[in-house]
Each structure stands twice: as structure tokens, then as C-alpha cells.
Amino acid sequence: MKSSMGSLFVVFFFALVCSFAIATDPGSLQDFCVAAKNPNAAVFVNGLFCKDPALAVPEDFFLPRFNKPGVIKSPVGSVVTQANVAQIAGLNTLGISMARIDYAPYGLNPPHTHPRATEILVVLEGTLHVGFVTSNPENKLFTKVLHKGDVFVFPVGLIHFQANVGKIPAVALAALSIQNPGVITIANAVFGSKAPISDDVLAKAFQVDKKVVDYLQSQFWMDN
């Protein structure tokens, strides 16, 4: 009996250890893996080719002028300047990225999700009303008004937003827990998909007349 209980404990222990191993990313086995534009003689790691470390240069880890305000063209009144692996090749496999968000007075970074990353945001200038919504069935809104120097966290995958509630421009910096967090802007995805989602589907989902859906789908949806 003791032998069988001991065997059961060993099986349970290894199952627990394996579950932790599967649930997390493996540790890096090298100092860095600069994303290579030319795949010749490169190694494919984490979705990108890695440059020979001997050929890495300081510019692979550098992004200039992140302090420069972004040009706001979006009708929602904000612009996101990204600093992920697409802009800094040396971020590949390092599991982190950043973004700068500029907001016009009363500008909005509309509801969106990052399917692969948790975000932590700090306000540099202005006043922001921010929030995120938990998953079904609670759909609970966590919201806060942030001032200069305040920090707020948006958990991975949850819909969140930021709105400038002041009369002056606002600026925030965000750090994200992966090299390429991805972004899904809810309105763009639902009403601006290519090809469009059936208006019958959306009319039933949102409990509105199909004319409302047709109107929304006819609008120009642009990335922020």
C-alpha cells in the first residue's frame, strides 16, 4: 500500500512539474537573438531568423527619437508609436516591448486587446481615464482616472482603453510583456474586417437594425 502511494506521489509530482514547464516559455539559451532580415546562414527562432551574434551591431538594439511626439491623424484623436521587435531587431526572444501613446485633447485610444501581452502604462503628461473589462460572464469594468506619474496595469488579452479627459495633449508610455504583443482594435475588427462579417450576424449579435450595421461597415476604419 505504501509502495503504491509512493508511486502515485511520484507520478503526481512529475505531472505537476511538467505542467509548469508547458505553461511557461523556455529560458533563453543565449544572450540575444537579433532578428535577421536576410535568412541566409541564419537560425529561425520565435518566428524570426536570428543574425549571427558575431555580426550584431549597436544599432540592432537602438531606436532613435522615442521622445518625439507622434503625428495624430486618426479621427479618434490618438497615435501609438511602437517599440517592438519590428522596430528593434535586438528585442527578438527577449520577451519585452514598449509603446508611446500621444493623445490630442479629449483623444481616445479605443477599446482593444493585446492577445499575447500584459501592459503596464505610466502617464507622462495629462490626465487619462483608463479601464479594462474582465472576461465572461462577469464582464466587470475596472476603471481609474490617472494623472501625471500614475501607473495602471491591463491584464493580458482583456479589452482596455485610454481616454484623454483634459483640454491639453496627454502622453503615456506602455511596457508590454512580449516582443510582439499584437493588437486587435475591437471596432476595426468587427466592422472593418476584410471581407466584411455578414450584417445578419452583426445585427443579431448587437441587437440592432441591419441598417446600423451597414452604416458602421461603410465607415473608414484605420489603424491607430
From TrEMBL:
Sorted UniProt keywords? Apoplast, Disulfide bond, Manganese, Metal-binding, Secreted, Signal
CDD domains reported for this sequence? cupin_OxOx
InterPro entries to which the protein is assigned, alphabetical: Cupin_1 (IPR006045), Germin (IPR001929), Germin_Mn-BS (IPR019780), RmlC-like_jellyroll (IPR014710), RmlC_Cupin_sf (IPR011051)
- Tell me which residues make up the Cupin type-1 domain: 64-214
- List the SUPFAM superfamilies hit by this protein, alphabetically: RmlC-like cupins
Entry keyword Disulfide bond: yes
**Annotated organism of origin:** Papaver somniferum
Keyword Aminoacyl-tRNA synthetase (UniProt): no
**Sequence positions that bind oxalate:** 109, 114, 119
Q: Which residues bind Mn(2+)?
A: 112, 114, 119, 160
GO CC terms, sorted: apoplast
Q: Which family does it belong to?
A: Belongs to the germin family.
Q: Which PANTHER family match?
A: GERMIN-LIKE PROTEIN SUBFAMILY 3 MEMBER 3 (PTHR31238)
Give the signal peptide as a residue range, or say none if absent: 1-23
Q: Which cysteines share a disulfide bond?
A: 33-50
Pfam assignment, any one = Cupin_1
Q: What is its main location?
A: secreted
The subcellular location is: Secreted, Extracellular space, Apoplast
Q: Which GO molecular function terms does the record list?
A: manganese ion binding
User: What's the name of the protein?
Assistant: Germin-like protein
